[in-house]
Amino acid sequence: MVKLNKIYTRTGDDGTTGLVAGPRRKKHDLRVESYGEVDEANSCIGLVRQHLAEHPDLDAMLMRVQNDLFDLGADLATPETGKRLDYEPLRIAQAQVDRLEREIDLLNADLQPLRSFVLPGGTPAAAALHLARTVARRAERRIVALQACEGEAVSAAAAAYINRLSDFLFVAARWVNDKGRTDILWVPGQNR
Fold first, then answer.
1. Per-residue pLDDT tens over the stretch 20-29
2. Can you tell me the distance from the alpha carbon of 134 to that of 185, in angstroms, rounded to the nearest whole number?
3. What distance in Å separates the CA atoms of residue 54 and residue 103, rounded to the nearest whole number?
4. Rounded to an integer, what distance in angstroms lies between the CA atom of residue 129 and that of residue 161?
5. In 3-state terms, what secondary structure has residue 142?
6. What pLDDT is attached to residue 143?
């Protein structure tokens, strides 16, 4: 599916990039920004995984998420044009969303209900998960904006996946904070 012989092509020197199928787009195009932000979230998750030696099950979940995020990037980089393609484009499947929901439920079962909002922090893994969560939320905002553009299509499964991902990352951050016991909670108005 992917073959990279040469890393630089010079074709982007004019400020455009090629999608998987379709015309070239400006690098600041909302579709390009959408999959770029998905890539940024993926990179943040790569950093998280450096802190998970004590949590191999969560590390395995995040490795699956990283792979899914490449699928999501491919989905976004292959806009639906209504034209028949010579291949089946890679799309996020509802099964990927369902798996993420099951993993959220699995981690969340170990947590006590929240009494307040959680301040990003705690263990290094939790802090990195919170950063990944905020980047995933930004990617979601870009994808939702793309969905709202006339002539641009984003599948319901792709939009659901990125929405669910930030929920997963939030629950995972609490889970690595000793199953929520070392979460740092917001105290409204504490410093007035």
1. 776 776 667 8
2. 17
3. 18
4. 17
5. helix
6. 98
CA distances from 109 to 32, 113, 171, 174 (A): 37, 10, 10, 11
Helices and strands, number each (H, E), in the chain: 5, 4
DSSP letters spanning 106-137: HHHTTSPPPSSPEES-SSHHHHHHHHHHHHHH
* Residue (of 71, 21, 65) closest to 43 by Cα position: 65
Specify the amino acid at residue 114.
L
pTM, full prediction: 0.91
- Sequential DSSP letters for 12-42: TTTSEEE-SSS-EEETTSHHHHHHHHHHHHH
B/e letters for 154-171, b = 16+ CB within 10 Å, e = fewer, are bbebbbbbbbbbbebbbb
Which conformational region is residue 79 in: left (phi greater than 0), alpha (psi within -120 to 50 degrees), or beta?
A: beta
Map tokens 């199928």 to a residue: 21
Both structure tokens of 26: 């400006």
Cα 99 to Cα 159: distance, rounded to the nearest angstrom: 15
- Over residues 49-89, the pLDDT tens digits come to 999 999 999 999 999 999 999 999 999 998 887 778 888 88
Residues 128-146 have a mean pLDDT of: 98
Using the predicted structure, report yes or no on whether residue 12 has a pLDDT greater than 80: no
